[in-house]
Amino acid sequence: MSEKMITPELFRPSLDFPAVSYDQLLRSAAERNPERHAIIYHNLRLTYREVVAMVNSIANGLHALGLQKGDRLCLLLTNRPEYIITFIAAASLGVVISPINPAYKEREITYQLENSEAQAILIQEELAPLFSRVLAQHTFPELKHILITGSSAPENLPGALPFATLLRQSSPRYQEHAVVGSEDLLALPYSSGTTGLPKGAMLTHGNLSINNLQFITVLGATANDKALLFLPFYHIYGVMLTGSFLACGGTQVMMERFDLQQSLELSEKHQITYYFAVPPIILALAHSSLNLEKLNSVKYIFSGAAPLPIEPARIVQSKIKGTVVQGYGMTETSPLTHSQPYDPELIRLGSVGFPIHNTLQKLVEIDDETREVAQGENGELLVKGPQVMTGYWRAPEETERVLKDGWFHTGDIGHLDEDGYLYIVDRKKEMIKYKGFGIAPAEIETTLLEHPAIVDAAVIGIPDPETGEQVKGFIVVRPGASVTREEIISFVNGRLAGYKHIHVLEIIDAIPKTTSGKILRRTLKEREQTS
């Protein structure tokens, strides 16, 4: 038993979080501290007053284009101010945002545009050649507006409207174009399921705005804090960070992508207090020869998206003045549901901590969800709270499978220790976790089967100390066909985003399956362990 005894109920009582439209969190923070820096990006510094004015201009511009409440707007760009400004501007109109991974290839972008039936998209100008290839191969009847960062339309997208033009031509004064409430749909981030292609998780204004408030309450973040944000904004983790540090009135120092040395330099330069990471970055910090004293202003290094590697975390902890912690959540829960105590003396590195405020949990038997397991026993984690999605976009059967009486079935396996700390130990789901990103085996298997030489295929995750898991494929080659592993890997990887790439490929005689045809991945994993 720990010296400082706490219980989840005492530690995180239920709180009255206001259920407001998402843009109101920014507007409230701007009223409190209009001249405080909200965003720092390279040499650009934007105050809260300036960010709100830009949000108003883009919202008015989008409305003038004809975008209305309920329409979908995709974002295809890396971390930059336009991302946040457009996200919040769309939110103020009731327009639904669907973030697209900028590392996606043509087929993946096509799928999300078609599935979301997006009416508009904002593209980073460097990605214009990629998107022009998408348009050359597919027609999108719903897509009416193409916006692009920068001040002019590129030659390969001549009809695109520059973001700068929309910003200049529109009024910076707030105008209410639609009544937007907490129950209205706000975002459609796509989450990899265990079957088929990714599905859009329907997150409302209330889901995200309350989760932002839950997050800053648990972290104790205030207007005096500065966060370094390099985690991708298209990922739900990044969405939470950008929204939360605007909600608390703090400052976010933005990086387009992670670079270890640059992250240390920026931390020292701006006196960063919160450094957000994923396990591969913890590994990089642990094994780096760079001077981690540049992180001396950091109070917390917060890791999420995948289980924290304990020994590297201890190494990092020994090198910095701040505290390494981890949290837990999922795309379907906006994302945060669990976090460590704020008090460093109460933190247990191997645990994801306790449910955050207004969040319930239970652990049930893996094969019988009606029965809860005893303390110390492993069971599937179910969560319930105001941050849980309303369902999957146009996938009622999958929604019914994971959402029952308000309880979301996470598919993750864990147990509680004697003090109520939660430990995640395994996944019931078959998703592969590569550098914190979920990969659906079925999507890669479908791509493998598009090759004419392959008659059957299966994909599993294999342990990797640096990335968490790597993707391994198993294929059965058509009789008489001649093909090399290198050829198949090149074929598949050329069609998928980098984080979904196959790293290892094995040719076998048959894919193990149940009598109903379901792939026995556990058999393949056991084969891998004994080989």
Helix and strand arrangement:
Elements lengths: L7 H4 L11 H10 L4 E5 L2 E4 H18 L6 E5 L4 H13 L2 E4 L6 H11 L3 E4 L4 H10 L7 E4 L12 E2 H7 L15 E3 L2 E2 L7 E6 H15 L6 E4 L6 H12 L3 E4 L5 H11 L3 E4 L1 H9 L12 E4 L6 H10 L3 E7 L6 E4 L14 E2 L4 E6 L2 E5 L6 E6 L6 E2 L3 H7 E2 L2 E10 L5 E6 L4 E3 L2 E3 L1 H8 L5 E11 L3 E10 L7 H9 L8 E6 L13 H10 L1
Parallel strand pairs: 1-12, 3-4, 3-5, 5-6, 6-7, 11-12, 11-13, 13-14, 14-15, 28-29
Antiparallel strand pairs: 1-2, 8-10, 9-10, 10-21, 15-16, 16-17, 18-19, 18-20, 20-23, 22-23, 23-24, 25-26, 27-28
Task: Write a concise keyword list for the protein shown above.
GMP Synthetase, Chain A, domain 3, 6-stranded antiparallel sheet, globular, single chain, Rossmann fold
Detailed description of the structure:
One of its GO terms (molecular function) is CoA-ligase activity. InterPro entries: AMP-bd_C, AMP-bd_C_sf, AMP-binding_CS, AMP-dep_synth/lig_dom, ANL_N_sf. It comes from Tengunoibacter tsumagoiensis. Belongs to the ATP-dependent AMP-binding enzyme family. The protein has 2 domains: 396 residues, Rossmann fold, CATH 3.40.50.12780; 97 residues, GMP Synthetase, Chain A, domain 3 (2-Layer Sandwich), CATH 3.30.300.30. Helix content is 31%, strand content 26%. It has 16 helices and 29 strands. Helix 3 crosses helix 4, helix 5 packs across helix 6 and helix 11 crosses helix 12. The longest helix has 18 residues. The protein starts with 7 loop residues before the first helix and ends with a helix. The N terminus is likely disordered.
